[in-house]
Amino acid sequence: MGALKADLASADKTPSFAYVAPGPCQDGSPTPCAAGMASGMASGMSAVDGFLKKVVPEIPASAAYRR
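The chain above was modelled as a monomer; its predicted structure follows.
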């Protein structure tokens, strides 16, 4: 996830296939995130919703996707 924004900045850097998956703090698990990983972050489906609302719009708005 850390490289997604940089990869999407240019079609030349973007792989033809990429699997985007949430981390353990945004995966929908009812278990709260481990201490120190993302303090105050919600668990469960609200965390997934927040992840998707942030990441999905970045993809079609990117230079690589438009190209």
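The chain has three helices and no strands.
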